[in-house]
Amino acid sequence: MHGPVKFSIQELRLATAGFSSRNKIGSGGFSNVFKGVLGDGTLIAVKRFKNCSSAGDAEFINEVEIIGSVRHRNLAGLLGWCVSSSSETRHERFIVYEFMPNGSLQDHLSVPGQSVIRESWELRKAIILGVARGLAYLHGGAEARIIHRDVKSSNILLDESMTPRISDMGLAKFVPEGVSSFRTGTVGTQGYVAPEYVLYEQLTDKSDVYSFGIVMLEVLTGNKALVPPLSTPIADWAWDLIQRDKLWDVFSGVKLAGLADEFLLEMLRFLFVAFLCAHPYVVHRPSMLQAVKMLEDGTGVPQKLPERPLGFEVVGSGASNTEAFSLSTISSRE
Questions:
Q1: How many CA atoms lie within 13 A of 180 on its CB side?
Q2: In angstroms, rounded to a whole number, what is the distance separating the alpha carbons of residues 35 and 21?
Q3: For the chain, which ranges sit under pLDDT 70?
Q4: Which site among 81, 156, 193, 316 is 20 to 30 Å from 39 CA-CA?
């Protein structure tokens, strides 16, 4: 298939055994996802949207066509779409993706204790770089400029070789040429959505950069975007530990034992870039292309982080101190 194709509702029902609960592999506020098999044996993932109306069908189909034409090794292949109305189910929309056998990044990070991702720095590094390159391509390398709007660990799928593939483009927005930002109703997932998008409904590609920073922190630390037991935002949780001179506690959820110093320093550089990407102030965030270069070889990484306000009160934490975590302090650590 060279571009997204129109599936019939009958094809999707047949592929998913009538959207059977045993084929349900994911769910969220806007949709459910089902595993399916096409007539030719192709494994697919079918995203079934909730609470649709026919009013937005034309825009939906147009954006699916645009997004489906984008190809990159770190993007999940969008195979097609379907729009259906019936007296039983009312109005529904579907997006059909390639099926990824290793599930989502969130699946692996949610496993308590040891997991292949928690155990391997090289794999964590490859996943972060892959996601960064995929987003950079969406923002500027593709013919159409696209903002994903819902970057999160459950939307990062892993193929048979554990290569990350960004999925769930159902909320993505095509950005017209010459437009740098626009207002739109806030969508996304708590813990990942950029502050300016929540507060002002102002959407730019830096909104994706913020969400990517949160995903980076999840991968680097092994923790959740909202850290239990108080659902503390992960960037605030990690930054507070650093302020209290507990830098290495940030990595308590992943394996460090046996890592050579060069890899430990590399992890710290990645953490530094994660804080830049997940900075509360949009002006301090890099573009995704800049983030890729910072991650690949350190190009363009500032010597210290911009001032970062804490998002929650921590007794005795004091004021935010960016000197506690700078390139000079990283390079001097043993």
A1: 2
A2: 10
A3: 1-2, 87-89, 113-114, 142-143, 169-187, 310-334
A4: 156
116-168: pLDDT as tens digits: 999 999 999 999 999 999 999 999 876 678 889 889 999 999 999 999 999 87
174 contacts 67 by C-beta, under 8 angstroms? yes
DSSP structure class, residue 5 = E
| 152 annotated ligand binder | no
DSSP helix/strand/coil, 295: helix
Question: Token pair of 334, please?
Answer: 């043993």
Q: Give the H or E element holding residue 268.
A: helix 261-277
Pick 105-332's CATH classification: 1.10.510.10, 3.40.640.10, 3.40.120.10, 3.30.1360.70: 1.10.510.10
pLDDT digits (tens, 9 = 90+) for 279-295: 999 999 999 999 999 99
Tokens in use for 144? Answer: 């159409």
Concerning whether 261 is annotated as a catalytic residue, the answer is no
Asked whether the CA dihedral 174, 33, 185, 148 is positive or negative, the reply is negative
Residue 268: φ, ψ to 5°: -65, -40
Domains 5-98 and 105-332 share a fold: no
**Calpha distance 129→43 (Å, rounded):** 26
* Rounded Cα distance, 334 and 331, in Å: 8
Answer whether CATH 3.20.20.140 is correct for domain 5-98: no
Residue type at position 32: N
Catalytic residue among 40, 57, 150, 297: 150
Tokens of 72: 């990159």
| Bridge partners of residue 158, in order along the sequence | 164
Expressed in angstroms, the distance from the first to the final Cα of the chain is 52
Could you give the CA distance from residue 292 to residue 129 in angstroms, rounded to a whole number? Answer: 7
